[in-house]
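Board notes, transcribed. Complex of a protein with magnesium ion.
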Amino acid sequence: MVMGITRKIIHIDMDAFYASVEQRDNPDLRGKAIAVGGSPEGRGGVVATASYEARQFGVRSAMPSKKALQLCPNIIFVKPRFDVYKEVSNRVRDIFRRYTDIIEPLSLDEAYLDVTEDNQQIGSAITIAENIRAAIRDELQLTASAGISINKFVAKIASGMKKPDGLTFIGPSKVEEFMDKLEIDRFYGVGKVTAEKMKALGIFTGADMKKLTLQQLVDHFGKVGNFFYQIVRGIDDRPVEPFRETQSIGAEDTFQADLFVEEELHKELERIAVIVAQRLDKHNLKGRTVTLKIKYSNFKIITRSKSFSEPVSDALVITNTAKELLEGTLPPPRGIRLLGISLSRFNDGTSSEKFDPQLKIEF
Ligand code: DCP
Ligand code: MG
């Protein structure tokens, strides 16, 4: 692809993925409020995802099952079947491959596709996205939503706009207006803390952000300020990267007040470990190395790691390892502002799909 050409990027995201697969495979669950994951008594565990019927009651991903049960007393909890989701995910990727080889999966249920030049010379990204959605519906009895635009950032947000079973196209001439109106909470990659900081600065939308100079954005937000500067102007040159290897998966949290007490730190680690375990599940990954990150009140950051001979992904193992790593740093020299846990050194079971550079060159 020659730089400068307007790219055609599609982002596809399956609708209520795990829950839809369960409803597809078990007719008794169709039309019903279901949650995949969590425990039936509402004791412990969190919801991986909920059917759209359950979402009407406010049930959401990552919600404790206890809360889900309160919101929706008739909810049915279903045990996840990750091997089935992985298989469906592979079938969806086979469908993508009919149209392009430039596919970047973000998780089992979503991927970017670059169809600037598609394999069938269809030309229209909208037609390709509709064909893909139809194939997923006809061949897999599932629905997916699509976002189409000139870059990854806009395509990804667009795919969420008409969920479920929707398609949203943001054409080249509409991108800047789209970004102007976009609320910063919906910016992909902007977490709660950053969002609060932006609001305190009077930045609520892309248009607000555009009023800041590059220097101001970098001063306030560091390196990512560069990205913000570009993205509000509709510029996102990140390529769709096929076979990009995930290096690490983790989660971290900045606390309202600095923490000192071991019990409190343990509670936070337990919470963060559950999120990490969920993310690993979602990506079907296990890691050999667990890393604990600690940021102190003076912004000094330290990390401590432990490696296992076998890859791990279990929340309890991650929690205990993180606690053990924390132990070695106690008592804290000063208040702890942030804790993070990540896993790396995966064997992701997809190594057979690993990139063969020779395949890429076509003359
Ligand atoms: N998932 C999870 N834990 C989370 C979020 C997601 O285990 N906190 C899993 C279950 C989802 C799948 O990943 O089915 C895909 O995540 P999405 O965020 O795309 O959510 P869904 O596909 O379930 O719903 P949507 O229709 O909103 O895309
Ligand atoms: Mg989805």
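The mean pLDDT is 91. The CA atoms of residues 232 and 346 lie 35 Å apart.
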